[in-house]
What we know:
Number of helices of chain B: 0
Shape of chain B: globular
Largest sheet of chain A: 6 strands, mixed
Radius of gyration of chain A: 13 Å
Helix content of chain A: under 10%
Oligomer: heterodimer
Distance between the termini of chain B: 33 Å
Largest sheet of chain B: 7 strands, mixed
Strand content of chain B: over 45%
Radius of gyration of chain B: 13 Å
Structural class of chain B: mainly beta
Order of helices and strands of chain A: EEEEEEEEEEEE
Structural class of chain A: mainly beta
Distance between the termini of chain A: 41 Å
Number of helices of chain A: 0
Largest interface: A-B, 22 and 25 residues
Order of helices and strands of chain B: EEEEEEEEEEE
Amino acid sequence: AQTVTQSQPEMSVQEAETVTLSCTYDTSENNYYLFWYKQPPSRQMILVIRQEAYKQQNATENRFSVNFQKAAKSFSLKISDSQLGDTAMYFCAFMKVSNDMRFGAGTRLTVKP
Amino acid sequence: DAGITQSPRHKVTETGTPVTLRCHQTENHRYMYWYRQDPGHGLRLIHYSYGVKDTDKGEVSDGYSVSRSKTEDFLLTLESATSSQTSVYFCAINPSGNSYEQYFGPGTRLTVT
């Protein structure tokens, strides 16, 4: 079974600074997808960024980028120029082609003014 | 907005009673999912559907059943609710069979007393 580990239960960052959230996963599959979701206090799950395992290039979406290390099974999220609205729970997720998406336990990020 | 609604949004019920949660989508997407979210566990897949009357079990399916008689509706039933099923339940859809990213509904908070 696939497992996803987020080793940082809580993190904080000053507004306008950069923060990196860690995620590791365990799988024997070669083809899969990785995601980062954001869950603000509203409880809505919001897709932040996704990465296909067959792509070597790291995905980027505006201030959000990932560092995907396939051999190390690592998928970290970097948030640049942090904003107060980035305060949320962040979940790393792994999905293989069977539609079985596995989530990590989450990292609570607080952006301080 | 992925066009997903869930009803009810909040429910309190007693142990042993049946409960049905509804997920409704407006875009005729083929794939739909039910997850539960508990502290320390992230989201865990209960059941998913890949078409009308086509469903499969997820990681934590015991005690739950699902039905999909129409493309737009995916129902989750707790035949006899237990306190361990107190959770927040999320429905999700996959709008593209190629990318596997999922978009989530607003969630239903269920409390079993």
